[in-house]
Amino acid sequence: MVKQMMLGLRSTGAEVVEYSTDAHREALDTGDRPYDRGTSGPVWLRHEHLAPAIERLRPNLVVCNAGGLSFRPEDARRLRERACLAGIALSDPDVFEPTTRHIAAHFDVFLTNAPACVPRYEALGARAAVLPVATNDAYFHPVPPRPEMACEVLVVARPHPDRIAPVKALVRAFDTHVYGEGWDEHGVPGRGLIHGDDLLAALSSTRVAVVFFLTGAGHALVKVGLFDFPAAGALVATNHFPEVEAYMAYGKELIGFGSTEELLSKIRHYLDHPEEAERVRAAGRARVLRDHTWRTAWPRVLDVLRTGAS
After folding, report:
1. Which segments of the chain have a pLDDT < 50?
2. Which fold has domain 147-291?
3. The model's pTM
4. If 90 and its partner were Cys, which of 66, 68, 241, 302 is the partner (CB 3.0–4.6 Å)?
5. Where are the domains of the chain?
């Protein structure tokens, strides 16, 4: 998602320089903790490693995107004298307590994927705002289906507790393909990890793709799959969640369900009514491409940054 966000910002015409911390682990400092991408605590950026690039580029905006990334307070203060410094959390509220609450106040603006965390950040003295969820349609787009990937239902997910029972029910009721690590341990035949062109082909080859809305810690969120998957041409089913309604319309642009029984019933209905399924699928893709790409979301984000940094 971080890469797709960066590419989306670049597609707006902005000059964007990527500094991948995966390629520069020497720039990271976790103290005496193992590096876990900010799951258990902040990941400090070593200013001396980034300073030469910042001095050379003289950017207007520096974005620390996800992974618990932050400059230490004194380094952040000096950097903010020369550029706007923005932080982004993509795994709130799960990482709020161990990580992001410790770093949010170091930024001009801190953007979170979890609206419920905004007042919590503000209570800590941080300027916070909600990060809109979107997709990069230059990457997520329809591709030719593959016969070996054809199925009625597609699940690409980790086996979090809330998902195991409904996925087992889907496997019993439909021709269901399940991707992700760890499913076999729960008696669900898993197909392993999937990404890149294979993921796009899987999304083009299924009748319905299911996106579950709870995080690993059990928090409800608007998931990026609600945008990536329709952009790739899939009909999406997801849990009923009021925050989704600001982005998409249940029953018109995606399928909504409130229980496993309703999920099974809705999928059966749309499998039996392919013309209706096609209307919902097409409307969902059109809505995402019109309103919810990073190309259209970043100007709104930049407006927040201008206001927050002023």
Report:
1. 310
2. Rossmann fold (3.40.50)
3. 0.90
4. 66
5. 2-132+294-309, 147-291
